[in-house]
Automatic annotation (TrEMBL):
SUPFAM superfamilies: HAD-like. GO terms for molecular function: magnesium ion binding; phosphatase activity. The lineage of its organism: Bacteria, Bacillati, Bacillota, Bacilli, Lactobacillales. Keywords: Hydrolase. It comes from the Bacteria. This is Cof-type HAD-IIB family hydrolase. One of its GO terms (cellular component) is cytosol. PANTHER family: PHOSPHATASE YKRA-RELATED, PHOSPHOSERINE PHOSPHATASE. The keyword rRNA-binding does not apply. InterPro entries: Cof, HAD-like_sf, HAD-SF_hydro_IIB, HAD_sf. It holds the Pfam family Hydrolase_3.
Length: 268
């Protein structure tokens, strides 16, 4: 613990995942302590960021009201400085790649969703899509041709056999699947991750990974836990994330973030 406390002294920016880290995904519950945490970090001069698989449309009002300094959204594919709305980084899918993914998913009898910077559309809104997506984005409109109208940063697979989907070789060289729900996986660029997005923020601020702490719980935090100077996992995190964490804290409902930052002596 002494080594972790020493590392904590170098922290200048903290990134937070949303679902089951800042708030409970299924109920939307976010403890009052989260607002206190952000206020205390501002008083200490420590910057904050949201690092999420969601796009800006999915950054719910109570998270926006925390007034973070940065959004690292869509698993690192879109990075924005909040106050200025300056886009620090964007990584979109080409139209031919989107069409290749669609062809593959249709062959696999899987529906899909398109993720733009501040909007989403699905190929089909059915019971399977509702089970996966409603807790995060509510009901979405159907538009199988949405990629022809908007830049696409990410896609989602949607099926009742999502765990059986295997990328064909020509796609496996360009994209990868990250499961986030029994019925759905994020389809992200091979080189895409929250870590890359956070790295763009650090470069803009002339900071190093050892100046960064992150909180997370899921497999889309994997690269970030390898990258950050300090990483804190929520108690209910995926086993791989628990293994990678420098520190494991309590659940959202039990003020896990506040407890961790106090234990690390970053705030009182």
């Amino acid at each position: 613990m002494d080594k972790i406390l020493e590392k904590a002294k170098a922290i200048k920016i903290i990134f937070f995942d949303i679902d089951d880290t800042l708030r409970v995904k299924t109920s939307g519950f976010m403890p009052e302590s989260i607002t206190q945490v952000f206020e205390k970090l501002r008083e200490k001069g420590i910057m904050t960021g949201i690092a999420t698989g969601r796009n800006l449309y999915g950054v719910v009002p109570e998270v926006r009201d925390l007034h973070p300094d940065f959004y690292v959204a869509i698993n690192g594919a879109y990075v924005e400085e909040v106050k200025s709305h300056n886009i620090l980084y964007k990584n979109t899918f080409s139209t031919p790649l989107v069409e290749e993914i669609i062809t593959w998913l249709e062959q696999e009898k899987s529906e899909y969703a398109f993720v733009a910077s501040d909007s989403l559309k699905v190929s089909k809104w059915d019971k399977i899509a509702k089970e996966a997506i409603s807790p995060v984005y509510a009901e979405l409109e159907e538009d199988p041709a949405y990629y022809q109208k908007q830049d696409i940063y990410q896609m989602l697979t949607i099926s009742d056999h999502d765990d059986q989907l295997v990328l064909p070789e020509h796609l496996a060289q360009q994209i990868r699947l990250v499961r986030w729900h029994p019925n759905s996986s994020d389809v992200v660029p091979m080189a895409g991750s929250k870590a890359i997005g956070c790295q763009k923020v650090l470069e803009a601020l002339d900071l190093k990974p050892e100046n960064m702490l992150n909180f997370g719980d899921g497999l889309n935090d994997r690269e970030l836990f390898d990258f950050a100077g300090l990483s804190v996992a929520m108690k209910i995190s995926h086993p791989e994330i628990l293994e990678k964490a420098d520190y494991v804290t309590d659940t959202v409902e039990n003020d896990g973030i506040l407890k961790a930052l106090q234990a690390l002596k970053i705030i009182d």
